[in-house]
Design a protein that fits this description.
It contains no helices and 24 strands. With 402 residues, it is mostly beta strands. The protein has a 4-stranded antiparallel β-sheet with strand order 1-24-23-22, with no helix packed on it. The protein has a 4-stranded antiparallel β-sheet with strand order 2-3-4-5, with no helix packed on it. A 4-stranded antiparallel β-sheet has the order 6-7-8-9, with no helix packed on it. A hairpin with a 5-residue loop joins β18 and β19. It is globular, with a radius of gyration of 20 Å. It starts with a strand and ends with a strand.
Length: 402
């Protein structure tokens, strides 16, 4: 029997032409729920868009018109944003930035990867093979999100790549920790020979300067990828983190792992496999002292799921419940570009039925984020695909009581 009651669904934002996705939210001290998310610059998932912000003042029932806080340019984009409110009310948004390195010399012949120009997408293939990660950055607001600083680079050395998922966490001593994932030897999210590790960077000056702080999980045998950590502080002061996992070289998704820190994230226990399948996770402490874990579910019946733990250490998959189901459309569109930076010719597919056992790019759903409103209502936000003739990723939220 599901432990949740009075479950309702609400739209957050639907863009008429672009995909919107990967929302992250926090409950603020004033009772608002503040969220940031990605708007893609295309009608497909490309990780090259811009960061927008929206706010709910009624516990997720309605949301403000989004506004851009980190815009894209002709040569830069950003994605995977997160948000944190500090004790003094300062807001910090983190994100990953990408750059499009255009050719500086005129090509001697047409690009083998290019297609005819169209009014709809233009020559988007110019970024193929030259789009690259520029780094992790943060911006700050001291006036509740009305104005923001210029992007501040986050030092992740000795790592070379560090991708975001959620916002930072403020420690009792005032320090900030930000969970990232990446590689020490390669400048990419996907590479050869080295798997991703999850790690923390820390700032002791409110986000101006950052240093490598602790390793959540790493496989020196380069078999297991650890990515996109969610963290929660228990009542006894320990930190608990869940992480997404993949095996190399197949990239098959396995169950999430859990680690525990007794020293504010400096050291962590050995990774422990759970029986909970899904990704990525986010965890919160509920007002009644229990703990809630939410995660995307990218296999039939798809959607978002959750589990409640009494103590934050013991999590039983038998207690799993459904927050939302579905989220992939019924049909596809002819000659649609792929969802990421792959060879354009390999990223096109023909019109046809979307099979629930093989949804292709439409498996990219979920990325849930969760907060509890002042009245106790839980708000879980996520992205899914619309069921329009031309499907787009849209943002929705589920409201429920526990």
């Amino acid at each position: 029997m599901s432990p949740i009651r009075n479950l309702t669904y609400h739209d957050i934002f639907r863009h008429p032409e672009h995909c919107v996705n990967q929302i992250a939210q926090r409950a603020l001290k004033n009772g608002d729920i503040l969220a940031v998310f990605n708007e893609e610059r295309f009608p497909f998932h490309h990780d090259s868009g811009q960061t927008l912000m929206t706010r709910s003042r009624d516990g997720g029932l309605t949301w403000s018109e989004p506004r851009i806080i980190v815009p894209w340019t002709a040569t830069q984009g950003n994605w995977d944003c997160g948000i944190c409110e500090l004790g003094d009310g300062t807001l910090i948004v983190n994100f990953t930035m990408t750059g499009f390195f255009k050719r500086g010399m005129k090509a001697e012949c047409p690009s083998w990867s290019s297609f005819p120009l169209t009014d709809e997408w233009g020559d988007w293939t110019w970024s193929f093979k030259t789009q690259a990660w520029l780094g992790t950055y943060v911006i700050r607001s001291m006036d509740g999100g009305d104005t923001w600083t210029e992007p501040i680079p986050v030092n992740i050395r000795p790592m070379k790549h560090g991708g975001c998922r959620l916002g930072a966490w403020e420690l009792p001593d005032g320090g900030l920790i930000l969970a990232l994932y990446g590689r020490m030897r390669e400048y990419s999210e996907d590479g050869t020979g080295e798997t991703n590790r999850c790690f923390l960077v820390r700032s002791d000056d409110g986000g101006d300067n950052w240093d490598y702080y602790g390793t959540l999980a790493y496989d020196p045998n380069n078999i297991i990828d650890y990515e996109e950590a969610g963290i929660v502080r228990l009542d006894d002061g320990r930190l608990v983190s869940f992480m997404r996992t993949h095996l190399q070289p197949s990239q098959d998704t396995k169950c999430m792992i859990m680690v525990v820190s007794e020293d504010d994230g400096f050291t962590w226990s050995q990774p422990k496999w759970t029986r909970i399948w899904g990704y990525p996770p986010e965890l919160i402490r509920l007002q009644d002292g229990r703990y809630l874990l939410v995660y995307g579910y990218r296999r039939p019946s798809y959607g978002v799921r959750g589990i409640i733990s009494d103590n934050g250490i013991e999590w039983d998959v038998a207690n799993e419940f459904v927050i939302s189901e579905g989220g992939i459309p019924a049909t596809s569109q002819a000659a649609k570009p792929s969802s990421s930076r792959v060879v354009p010719a390999a990223g096109l597919y023909d019109e046809g039925e979307v099979n629930y056992f093989h949804p292709g790019l439409y498996q990219h759903i979920g990325y849930p984020t969760v907060a509890q409103a002042a009245d106790g209502t839980v708000v879980c936000s996520y992205h899914e695909w619309s069921r329009d003739e031309r499907p787009l990723q849209v943002l929705r939220c589920a409201r429920f009581e526990v």
